[in-house]
Every structure is written in structure tokens, then in C-alpha cells.
Amino acid sequence: MSPIVKKKREHYVLPTKYWLLILTLLCVVTMVISFSTDIFAKPLNTISGYVVVPFQKGLTGVGSYILNRTENFKNLQFVMEENEELKKQIEELTKENIELGQDKYELTKLRELYELDKEYEEYTKIGARIIARDTGNWYSNFIIDKGSEDGVQVDCNIIAGNGLVGRVVSVGPNYAKVTSIISDNVNTSAMVLATGDILLVTGDLEMMSKNLITFSRLYDDNDRVSIGDKIVTSNISDKYLPGLLVGYVSNVSTDSNNLTKSGTLIPAVDFKHLEEVLVIMELKENIE
Amino acid sequence: MKKEFISIILLILCFLLQSTLLSRFTMGGIVPNLMIVMIATIGFLLGNRTGMWFGFVFGLITDIFFGQIIGLYACIYMFMGYLNGAFEKILFPHDIKLPLLLIVCTDFVYSNICYILFFLLKGRFDYLYYLRGIILPELIYTTVLACIIYPFVHFIFEKIDIFDAKHMGETYIEEQ
Question: Is A30 in Cβ contact with B71 (below 8 Å)?
């Protein structure tokens, strides 16, 4: 073959800057579409669910394993330094201790879950494990290992420890994306348990570092709400089931408009050390 | 092609690590941004075309899993890959200082875009808090990881170049 024939065969390559323009426009279009509808959610979730989630599950398992191992090792070293003369005995004891400690840890965790189960008995729930967290530092969304195949639906409420964690925002076949109530872009309608006053709980990144969430728009004319009051999800919320514990009031102040109050509350859930959660299968709109 | 193939594997690995293991080994609650390091590195070493495409694809994956709106991260990552690729012809890849500076700049710009899009537009004006609390710690942590990742990727790509140069001669003659 002569080089001239070859040259004719070479197809025209679009310059990169035009590709950049095309892809940018594509991004803008998908942004607009996904902002107004959720056409993409189903097919994309299904594909990524089968490709990525198994790996995330595995790696999270490895992570917990390593973390557990390192913790065990630290414990062991600490004890050995303290009791050098009783090395042999202590080695045996520490081994036993660690095993028992792990059992106890599991026991208390299971007990807590069981108690929680009793507290919110009327709902059917399934347990789920957190397998991935948001890649950035801006939001606190996470992925759990139960999806539509297990019956999880969008807007299912998530609880853990003894309170509300968040709700499912999108579902794949074997995973679900959960947005937590401490995320900066999430508002939750809640009420003070003692007085029944409605308020709005808003996640705030700045407050999150102090383990607090902000609330606002509390109408409390008679100053009945005080520090330590329980805040639960309200009856009028259209996503959250009523009566789930959100947290305890830690600070109240009157707004500049002299009508409403705002402040901070301590969440009932330890969001930094969340591993297992419970998914409530009933949706708010179906219960009445 | 080998380089692209290895890049894809590394990127997938980074994405998985980022969403699973790294969020457990945080420093002061801050997760480093491996994806930005990888996309900047690949853009810088393989050119703007490859950087752009990889940025787009992996931004899209991030969108599907963690984004509120499909296409936003895709767009940001794509531009990061493209702009880093623009330096391919200008800087020497052997000298780690300049690529490192490039990665640091990329992460800084990325964090600031995130701040502007997600927080400033919502009326959170306390920029200094976000700078001190999130952007700078992430930058430092990311830089430390970049010091490991960039030489590693560069080393692999160099090995591929040497391997190709050895085998290129034979196959080239055969085809002729």
C-alpha cells in the first residue's frame, strides 16, 4: 500500500477544544434535566450498582478489618508495657480480653439496636451497613448495601443508635444513597416533644465540626422550650415519619424579628462513627 | 493505549479508595482528594484530550454516586483534566516540583469552586472558616499524597515508554 492511500483512510479528528465545548454543553444539559426531572436516576443507578458497589463492599470490609487489627495491636502493646514481669500471663489475658471486648462491643451494639427496635416497634425495619461515604468534605451522604431488591424505596427513613440519620434519596438494585440530616443542603421539619412547637432543623457544615445542627423558625411565645428538650420529627413533615428522635436542644436564642427563635441542637446519633443503620420500610405517605 | 488502560485502573482504584477506605483514615475529619490528584496527574502526563475525557467519565461516576445534580462534577473534573493537560507541552514531567505545584493549584481551585457553588450561592459568606476548616487541611493532606502518587504514576509511564521503545522496533519492521 502506498502512503497516499493510507493518508486518505485517516479519518478526521475533532480538535480537543471542540470536544470540550460539546461535553460542557452536554454537562449543562444533563444538569438542567436532572435538576428538573429524574430521568437518569434509574438506568445510571442500575449500571453503577452492578459495577462499583461490589468493590466498595469488599474494600469497606478490608478497611474495618485493618482498623480492628490496628486497634487490637495498640491495646496489646499498651498492656504489655505496663506489666512486663507478667508477660506470659498477660498475653493470655489480653488475648482473651480482646476477644471478650469484641464480643461485648458487639453485644452492646446489638442490645442498642434491639432497644431501638422496641422503641419504634410499629415499623418494619431492615439492618444495613454503610459501604461508602461522600468523596468530598462538603457533604455527608453515604451509600448503604441494601437496595430496591431488598425493598428499599426512595424516601425511606434511616435511623441508627437512638435517632434519625436521614433518608434515602436514590435507589439502585443493591445499594441506596442516603443523605443525612446534618448535610448542609438538608432541611428537616421537626417539633419539640414537650410542647409540640414546630421548628426547622437545618444541617450546617460549620456547626457539624462541633457536632451540632442548627434549627430555626421556632414559634415559642411563652418561652417554654428549654435546653435539653427532646426534638422529634414533626407530624407535618412529608418525608419523615412522626416521632423519630432528632436530638436535644443545646442553645436557644430569639431572632432579630422577635417572633421566632433559633439555636443549635445536639444530634442523637453519632454521625462520625456510623457503621450500621436501620432502614424503616414504611413510607410517610403510605402510613395513615 | 497501555498508559490509558493503566490510568483507568488507577482511577477506578482511587475512586473506590476515596469512597471507602480513606473516609475511615481521616486526619481531623478531612478526606484527601485522590481523584483530583489522579486527574491532574493524568492530564499533565497524557495531554489535554485524555485528561478531559477521563475527567468527564470519572466526574460522571462521582455525580451518580454522590452528586445532587448529574453533570456538575463531570464538568468540573473535565476542566481540571483539560487545563492540566495544557501544561503537558510546557513543563518537564521529570521535575516533581512544578507538577506538584500544578496539583496543589488544581485542588485549591477545585475546593474554591465547590465553596462558591455549594455554599456562597446559599448565602454562607464566612469564607475564612471554610478556608481554614476545610480547604487548607484538604490541600495539605492532598499534597502529601500527591508527593507519593505523582512519582509513582510517572515511574510506571516511564517504564511503559521504555518497554514500548524496545518492542517498537521489531513490530514496526514487521508491519512494513
Answer: yes
Query: Is B70 in a helix, a strand, or coil?
Result: coil
Q: Is B5 exposed, middle or buried (0-12, 13-18, 19+ CB in 10 A)?
A: exposed
Q: Which amino acid is present at B175?
A: E
Gap from B96 CA to chain A (nearest CA, Å): 26
Q: B84: number of CA atoms within 13 Å, CB side?
A: 36
Domain boundaries, chain B: 32-157
> Which residues in chain A belong to E strands, given as ranges?
125-133, 141-144, 157-160, 163-171, 176-180, 187-192, 198-202, 213-219, 230-233, 245-254, 260-267, 276-280
Instruction: Taking the CA atoms of B114, B119, B122 and B124 in sequence, report the sign of the dihedral they define.
Output: negative
pTM above 0.90, yes or no: no
Which tens digits make up the pLDDT trace of B115-166? 998 888 888 888 898 898 889 999 999 999 999 999 999 999 888 888 888 8
Which H helix or E strand runs over A100? Answer: helix A87-119
* Residue of chain B whose Cα is closest to the Cα of A14: B49
User: With contacts defined as CB-CB under 8 Å, which chain A residues touch B20?
Assistant: 56, 59-60, 63, 131-133
CA distance A266 to chain B (A): 18
Closest CA to A246 of A161, A178, A184: A161
Taking an 8 Å cut-off on Cβ atoms, the answer to whether A209 and B133 are in contact is yes
CATH number of A126-282: 2.40.10.340
Q: Which residue of A has its CA nearest to B61?
A: A48
Distance CA A277, CA A270 (A): 11
Residues B56-114 have pLDDT tens digits of 999 988 888 887 788 888 999 999 999 998 888 887 778 888 888 989 999 999 999 98
Dist CA A90 CA A94 (whole Å): 6
Closest CA of chain A from B3, distance in Å:
19
> Which ipTM score applies to this complex?
0.76
**Which residues of A fall within a CB distance of 8 Å from B134?**
137-138, 205
Interchain proximity B75–A27, CB inside 8 Å: yes
Interatomic CA distance for residues A184 and B126, integer angstroms = 14
Q: What are phi and psi of A120, to 5 degrees?
A: -105, 55
Instruction: For residue A147, give the amino acid letter.
Output: G
Q: Please list the rounded mean pLDDT of every run of 10 residues in chain A (288 residues).
A: 55 83 89 78 76 78 79 76 68 79 79 66 83 81 89 89 86 89 87 86 84 87 84 87 88 88 89 85 72
